[in-house]
């Protein structure tokens, strides 16, 4: 019996195509590979959809080895590729220039066909990524302020904070949050016009409008929206004409109480060569940042991603990935997909060793440090009580001492700040500060406590060593 089909994501498929493209001519590539569809992995074999049996034969004869090499480069040890002739409808869908086929009368639309038309302005639908909603956004200490601000804006557009300025490093969720506001508004007020644009597209639109003498249309387009989302606003730097036009767009929207959300990789004050009048406008509303997610948030993001893609993957594997990829969420998601592709292509179940192997040639193995959760678990095991009790509200001495030790060790062994540790325990930073001071003081007087802390340190060192040798 055939096993389940596992999805191969676009990123992985793009890697395969990238490999192929480097090894054949452009003409060959466009003739043969552009129309191929990736149908996923079944029983360890990558299944590719081709147009007809002639193509199927051609691929078997001419490109099988190349495809196997491409899979080897992704970590497949014994790569296998099979081909399936696509039914005519699916075949039509692989031609990017053609519109998707309409479902036959009486038949439900197949996968990949367009959703039924919704009563929305067309531009709303085309400009928002359906995945970037509030429901799909994991909130952690790194992004909770930006999330709260975005939600407030979504609930009272044009009133709460205008503009909302979100900044942070690459791949940390700025675009996701902006789109989430768009989706939220679209659901509640379907008649509202929403425009999402990168600063680059805004600039190009402007250049085209000037060239084609279509400034009136340009202005109508950007000044008639209810919500304007502009990504990567730092790219306005040095573009005087675009700044000028954006200044007027901003004013028109602002005066009409229309909501503006801007994202950037840095705060307004650090955007060089930005006109003072624009900078000060960017500072009129609320400026909020997104930081790199800490370990627990990274695990939660991976878990949500796995659930979304219906991938049943053990928690310990997710934990390993979260330890390897620490700063960029886009890379974190990519790492998960790499592990999924690796285990599918090699037809092996998920395990920590498989994950470590899948990631080994992409991410330099990180020297793993213990995380808050590791310390909590170890302290809980040491004192023989459930972790939740230690994190709970109990004030009995038997609970308070382990809690204080856990806070002390986390402060000592991880890079977390007092507020972050406080949040982990559902308390504020002064409680953590007090705990650290208390344990430090007792270590000099209380032999039992010193022995416990030393034992825990050595156990946690073992945890780290074990992780590093995975
Ligand atoms: N808190 C989160 N919960 C779930 N997924 C997230 C979260 N933050 C980011 N992501 C995901 O990470 C990926 C990158 O996010 P996004 O594109 O929004 O980053 P960005 O900050 O706009 O990056 P860039 O500066 O490169 O434009 C997306 O797939 C997004 O869904």
TrEMBL record:
Pro residues bias (residue ranges): 97-120
Domain (Chromosomal replication initiator DnaA C-terminal): residue spans on this chain: 371-439
Gene Ontology cellular component annotations, sorted alphabetically: cytoplasm; plasma membrane
Residues that coordinate or bind ATP: 171, 173-175
Coiled coil: none
Keyword NAD: no
Localization of this protein: Cytoplasm
Domain AAA+ ATPase: 160-288
Keywords of this entry: ATP-binding, Cytoplasm, DNA replication, DNA-binding, Lipid-binding, Nucleotide-binding
SUPFAM superfamilies per the UniProt record, alphabetical: P-loop containing nucleoside triphosphate hydrolases, TrpR-like
CDD domains per UniProt: AAA (cd00009), Bac_DnaA_C (cd06571)
Domain IV, binds dsDNA, as annotated region: 344-470
Region span, Disordered: 95-126
Highest taxon above the source species: Bacteria
Entries under InterPro entries matching the protein: AAA+_ATPase, Chromosome_initiator_DnaA, Chromosome_initiator_DnaA-like, Chromosome_initiator_DnaA_CS, DnaA_C, DnaA_dom, DnaA_N_dom, DnaA_N_sf
UniProt keyword DNA-binding present: yes
Any one GO biological process: DNA replication initiation
Region (Domain III, AAA+ region), start-end ranges: 127-343
PROSITE patterns hit by this protein: DNAA
Record's comment describing the protein's domains: Domain I is involved in oligomerization and binding regulators, domain II is flexibile and of varying length in different bacteria, domain III forms the AAA+ region, while domain IV binds dsDNA.
Function: Plays an essential role in the initiation and regulation of chromosomal replication. ATP-DnaA binds to the origin of replication (oriC) to initiate formation of the DNA replication initiation complex once per cell cycle. Binds the DnaA box (a 9 base pair repeat at the origin) and separates the double-stranded (ds)DNA. Forms a right-handed helical filament on oriC DNA; dsDNA binds to the exterior of the filament while single-stranded (ss)DNA is stabiized in the filament's interior.
Summary of subunit composition and partner proteins: Oligomerizes as a right-handed, spiral filament on DNA at oriC.
Similarity annotation: Belongs to the DnaA family.
PANTHER family recorded: CHROMOSOMAL REPLICATION INITIATOR PROTEIN DNAA
Protein name per UniProt: Chromosomal replication initiator protein DnaA
Native organism: Deinococcus phoenicis
Gene name of the encoded protein: dnaA
């Amino acid at each position: 019996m055939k096993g389940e089909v596992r999805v191969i994501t676009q990123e992985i498929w793009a890697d395969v195509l990238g490999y192929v493209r480097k090894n054949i001519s452009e003409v060959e590539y466009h003739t043969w590979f552009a129309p191929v569809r990736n149908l996923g992995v079944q029983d360890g074999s990558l299944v590719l959809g081709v147009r007809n049996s002639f193509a199927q034969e051609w691929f078997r004869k001419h490109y099988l080895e190349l495809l196997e090499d491409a899979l080897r480069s992704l970590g497949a040890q014994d790569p296998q590729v099979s081909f399936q002739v696509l039914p005519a409808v699916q075949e039509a869908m692989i031609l990017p220039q053609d519109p998707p086929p309409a479902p036959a009368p009486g038949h439900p639309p197949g996968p990949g066909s367009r959703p039924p038309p919704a009563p929305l302005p067309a531009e709303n639908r085309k400009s928002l990524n359906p995945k970037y909603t509030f429901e799909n956004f994991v909130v952690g200490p790194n992004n909770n302020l930006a999330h709260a601000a975005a939600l407030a804006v979504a609930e009272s557009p044009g009133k709460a904070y205008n503009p909302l300025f979100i900044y942070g490093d690459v791949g940390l969720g700025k675009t996701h949050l902006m789109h989430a506001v768009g989706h939220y508004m679209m659901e509640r007020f379907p008649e509202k016009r929403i425009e999402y644009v990168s600063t680059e597209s805004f600039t190009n639109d402007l250049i085209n409008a000037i060239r084609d003498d279509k400034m009136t249309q340009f202005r109508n387009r950007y000044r008639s929206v209810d919500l304007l989302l502009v990504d990567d606003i730092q790219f306005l730097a040095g573009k005087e004409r675009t700044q000028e036009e954006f200044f007027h767009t901003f004013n028109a929207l602002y005066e009409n109480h229309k909501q503006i959300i801007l994202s950037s990789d840095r705060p307004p004050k650090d955007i060089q060569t930005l006109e003072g009048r624009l900078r000060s406008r960017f500072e009129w509303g609320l400026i909020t940042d997104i930081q790199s997610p800490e370990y627990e948030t990274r695990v939660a993001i991976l878990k949500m991603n796995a659930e979304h893609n219906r991938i049943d993957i053990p928690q310990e594997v997710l934990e390993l990935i979260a330890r390897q990829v620490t700063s960029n969420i886009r890379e974190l998601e990519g790492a998960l997909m790499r592990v999924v592709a690796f285990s599918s292509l090699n037809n092996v179940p998920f395990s920590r060793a498989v994950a470590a192997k899948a990631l080994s040639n992409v991410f330099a193995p990180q020297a793993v440090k213990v995380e808050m959760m590791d310390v909590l678990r170890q302290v809980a095991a040491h004192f023989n009580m459930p972790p939740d009790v230690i994190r709970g509200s109990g004030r009995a001495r038997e609970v308070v001492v382990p809690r204080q030790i856990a806070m002390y060790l986390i402060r000592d062994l991880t890079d977390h700040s007092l507020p972050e540790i406080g949040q982990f325990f559902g308390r504020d930073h002064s409680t953590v500060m007090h705990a650290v001071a208390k344990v430090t003081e007792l270590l000099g007087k209380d032999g039992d406590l010193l022995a416990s802390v030393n034992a825990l340190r050595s156990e946690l060192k073992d945890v780290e060593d074990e992780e590093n040798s995975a």
